[in-house]
Design a protein that fits this description.
Elements: E1 11-14, H1 25-34, E2 39-42, H2 49-65, E3 69-73, H3 76-82, E4 86-89, H4 96-103, E5 107-112, H5 115-123, E6 128-131, H6 147-157, E7 162-165, H7 170-178, E8 183-186, H8 188-191, H9 195-208
Parallel strand pairs: 1-2, 1-8, 2-3, 3-4, 4-5, 5-6, 6-7, 7-8
Helix pairs in contact: 1-2, 2-3, 7-9
Length: about 210
């Protein structure tokens, strides 16, 4: 079987709320980048805009030092001002067309949950789409799980990278990539416990596929 083509290293690390790990979003992202992650999405859902801006500015510089990409969740203006590589938008965020006018050729990713949304994002000029949840996840309420068959259908229908999200773990990583995903978005499976060790495990699996 032909080796899959991975997008931005194959893993997008999503920062999250983690009381047990004792690390905030910036600390999580720094640890992941130092461990070899090449793509971080800064997600700070309930934080004040100023705090998000400060984190984005800091991590943009840090990501560049590690030859990695930073995208900002939800806020194209923060992405533009901070020097981040792009933004990731949900279905209820700024429309893709307006975000493109603001960000030019920087990355724009769109969260999608069905084939229609995926095609709309592709045809609208998104650089990549997130699709899921593939499996059940406790990180956020994103609706019923989609499974590998729907993932494969979306991957076959669009001509941009598809990033699988939702319940991705070491034990199911191979099957998700083999279903056609160009990368996976992972949050709690990386920041729970030893971030650096978890990153190493994921990267080794990807290299073995």
């Amino acid at each position: 079987m032909e080796k899959p083509t991975l997008y931005l290293g194959g893993i997008c690390f999503l920062t999250g709320e983690c009381a047990r790990c004792g690390m905030g979003p910036v600390e999580q992202a720094r640890a992941a980048l130092e461990a070899g992650i090449k793509w971080v999405q800064l997600r700070m859902k309930d934080a004040p805009r100023k705090e998000i801006w400060e984190a984005a500015f800091h991590l943009s510089e840090f990501a560049h030092e590690h030859q990695a990409a930073l995208v900002i969740n939800d806020y194209p203006d923060v992405a533009a001002a901070s020097g981040a590589e792009g933004v990731h938008l949900g279905q209820d965020d700024m429309p893709l067309k307006e975000a493109r006018q603001l960000l030019g050729n920087r990355l724009i990713g769109i969260s999608t949950h069905d084939l229609s949304q995926a095609k709309e994002a592709w045809e609208g000029g998104a650089d990549y789409i997130g699709f899921g949840p593939i499996y059940r996840t406790g990180t956020k309420d994103a609706g019923p799980e989609k499974g590998l068959l729907q993932l494969a259908e979306v991957c076959n229908a669009v001509k941009i990278p598809v990033v699988a999200i939702g319940g991705i773990k070491p034990q199911n990583l191979r099957e998700v990539i083999r279903a056609g995903a160009s990368a996976v978005a992972v949050s709690s499976a990386l920041y729970t416990g030893d971030i650096r060790g978890n990153v190493k495990m994921f990267l080794e699996i990807l290299q073995s596929i």
